[in-house]
């Protein structure tokens, strides 16, 4: 029995499980299925931590929306939505695999190990559901009619402040490159 993992970039959960396998006496004697459990459990813990972080960010953005929304807040909302969708894309396919592992559909998984995989499945399921709830919240916020105008007003105030006292220059005129760079930096802050 053996377990092979392949990844493009190092993953904290995999590295932690690998260290435990090497450091804890008798750990590998429990079987490859339990080594797989450790890897998947550690990965799932990292998903839970990521979701808790995202949930905290949602709370902060929610407070900003009610206090003083700006164009930067809109950018934060879109970045958060991107993070949520990424986590959902990573976690969702794992639900089916973990469900199959917990139902003991693979001969490499000892019947006594199946409940351990069910526990991981439950955690992944909760992360997936929480990601969906947060995605719906972000979409609702973006759809609220009072959010977009408030953020747009902030963006236009930023632009007005930026262009106040600026000369109008034609392409190729002296100093135009510096103005174009300032505009590019301003729009990097926008969503």
How would you describe this protein?
By secondary structure, this protein is mostly helical. It contains six helices and no strands. Helix 1 runs antiparallel to helix 2. The longest helix is centred in the N-terminal third of the chain and has 36 residues.
Q: Can you lay out the helices and strands and say which pair or pack?
A:
Elements: H1 12-23, H2 32-67, H3 71-102, H4 114-143, H5 147-163, H6 176-188
Spans where pLDDT lies below 50 across 5 or more residues: none
Q: What's the total count of β strands? A: 0
Please state the average pLDDT score. 75
Note the main sheet.
none
Instruction: Tell me the strand percentage band.
Output: under 5%
Query: Mind telling me the C-alpha Rg?
Result: 24 Å
Helix content: over 70%
Q: What is the 3D shape?
A: elongated
Separate helix tally: 6
Distance between the termini: 50 Å
Order of helices and strands: HHHHHH
Structural class: mainly alpha
């Amino acid at each position: 029995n053996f377990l092979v993992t392949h990844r493009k970039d190092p993953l904290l959960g995999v590295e932690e499980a690998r260290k435990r396998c090497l450091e804890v006496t008798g750990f590998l004697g429990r079987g490859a299925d339990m080594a797989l459990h450790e890897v998947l459990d550690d990965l799932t813990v990292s998903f839970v931590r990521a979701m808790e972080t995202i949930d905290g960010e949602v709370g902060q953005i929610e407070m900003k929306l009610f206090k003083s929304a700006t164009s930067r807040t809109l950018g934060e909302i879109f970045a958060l939505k991107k993070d949520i969708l990424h986590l959902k894309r990573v976690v969702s396919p794992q639900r089916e695999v973990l469900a199959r592992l917990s139902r003991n559909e693979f001969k490499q998984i000892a019947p006594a190990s199946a409940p351990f995989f069910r526990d991981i499945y439950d955690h992944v399921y909760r992360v997936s559901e929480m990601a969906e709830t947060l995605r719906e919240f972000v979409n609702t916020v973006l759809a609220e009619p009072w959010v977009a105008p408030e953020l747009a007003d902030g963006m236009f105030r930023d632009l007005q402040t930026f262009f106040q006292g600026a000369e109008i220059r034609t392409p190729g005129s002296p100093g135009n490159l510096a103005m174009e760079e300032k505009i590019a930096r301003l729009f990097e802050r926008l969503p």
